[in-house]
What does this fold into?
Amino acid sequence: MNQIVSVGTSHHVAPIEFREKLAFSDEQLIEFLQRLHESDQVQEAVVLSTCNRVEVYALAHSVQNADAAAKMLVEFLARYHRIGVDSLKKWCYLHRNLETIQHLFRVTSSLDSMVVGESQILGQVKSAYDLSRSAGSVGVVLNRLFAKAFSVGKRIRSETTITTGAVSISYAAVELAKKIFNTLEGKTVAIIGAGEMSELTAKHLVANGAANVIVANRTYERAVTIAEKFNGTPHPYDSDLGFLVDADIVISSTNAPDYLIKRKPLVDIMRKRRHRYMFLIDIAVPRDIDPDVSKIDHAFLYNIDDLEAVVASNLKDRQHEAVRAEQIVSEEAKGFYSQLQTFQVNPTIKALHQQFQQIADTELQACFYKATLSDQQEAAVTSMTQAIVKKLLHHPMQNLRCAVNDGSIDHAQYVEALQELFALDVNDDNSEV
Amino acid sequence: MINFLFLLTLLIYLAASIFHTLSLAIGGRAEGSVIRPTIERIAFWSTIVGFVFLTLFIALWWLLQGHFPMTHWTDSIAFFAWAITLIYLLIVRLTHLRTLGSFVMPAAFIAILISYSFASHTAALPKPLQNYWLLAHTALIFLAYAAFIAAFGFGLMYLMAERKIRKKADALLDNLLPSLGISDELGYRCTILGVILLTMGVIVGSLWTQYIRDVPWRWVDAKVISTFVTLFIYVLQVGFRQFWGWHGRRAAYAAIVGFVAVLCTYVGVDLFLDSMHTYR
It folds into this structure.
């Protein structure tokens, strides 16, 4: 029977010193997969190797059970990387069948990532899968499994909000700006002062469409240096803040001990800019912008604490959503597993049906040959035979499918028994999978 | 039979209003996100079905009466609900923004409820009024009112979103309310649409009166005056926006004031004042 197993390590269980020993370069990955494939013990395999995790997914059908398959895989991996089997067992996790499926789904849904909801992992798994496919080690079962894993990853991203909501201050600023302006296209960003955080925020704003950057600094040379980074306009700092007339988003982070932007002058500026919205981000401590500014119509002021509160509330939301995502993953994994098993028993069911049908047909022909029956009688006998075949097969088939679905009994034993008892010739090539 | 159809429409509109309101109410909460897509779907499809039923009702009523049903004021208010839904569905079609429904669908439901509760099918439309002029005149004006209601909805959405942004911590949690820029812009477009439709409706009405019916134009008619006041409020709003940059918060308040004026023109005049427009 098919056994899907995975062996792997990740940032959750192993330090970087171990992960780097297990990591694969692209060439190594292909070489490893080809060797695995040639070994005849593994029919299909995919290797995923990123900076946070190294995982081998494999399908073995010539082994007795999943444990044997996992053991074989661990040994193979240890031999390839010349690591002791013991240390491999210490730092790695083993997954069997349903666990494997569930784990892969969690990975593609970014539930297993360092930052839950990050967006890169789906692409990483995709390219790992493509690479493994180019090594020729992917067949029908893993093909199906990974296709499903990608769709689960997408489903989680569209049905939960684990990927939405900024979890850093600079992204929170971008998202807030979008809540106000809808789009950052054509907007002007003004940076007052300097600092890593304000530059990072400006960078994100520009990456999201902001068109112009104005940099104001007490030292003009400093303004020029920063402005060059953004292809922006340097501006000498003047206390009447005239340059703010064109600014839609203002990021302030100076060392000034007092408020630089006060309510009164900003009211005038707002009038000059015809009350277009202004989003002010004050990341300086002590603050640069008078909190009273937020009372002005169409001026929205966020200080560093406000932004942190937004991030905290988003993180809480993500955790909440992650619980829901886990439920979806678990349901999908169970569904996929039972589907996979159904596909595994299907050839046997089909063979049994054919055998019964064949016997019925032969006997009918013999009967019609011996006795002369009217058309009506022939039809009646035929339909009776069909009914008998159907009813004879009903319970065995139902129980077999039940065994597959609830997993209480090892359906592999049933399948084997059926094949032996009825001398079925089952072509187990998974062509239907 | 026609009463039953109307009752059915009423109930579907009730469902549409409840589900629209519900989806807005649970919009900001993570716990609600499990069922929210389902609620939104029910809200939207009940709106579609309700609209089809209401259209059927009006068509049937038209056939039964033999002329455009605008005899009793309850007919007009049913048509008003139809216009509100039509404008809302057009906005959904163009912008994929369904949040507006949480504001306009309850209004449409209340309109149908009133129409259903007071419906009287006795009065007959005087012969000279039975023509397409009446249809054009009233349809244009009710579509204008519906556009103003949509602008009112966008105004409320703007104010809610602004409050949320000023409250800070949860500013990003809700993805149901559109950004300030969008609410403001769409509200403005609805206002413009309303102004155009209302102006056309008034022109059609005056042409009809003067040239077709040959009735002298009366300025001193409560409905006429009140309509001009309403139109003036909206034109003023558009002008202020163009020349002094009155948008955002001020536009939102103006949309609310304008909506009150619409209500006064539509309901107030009918109930308390005498006019040649009064339904009898």
Remarks:
- The two ends of chain B are 25 Å apart (CA to CA).
- The mean pLDDT of chain B is 85.
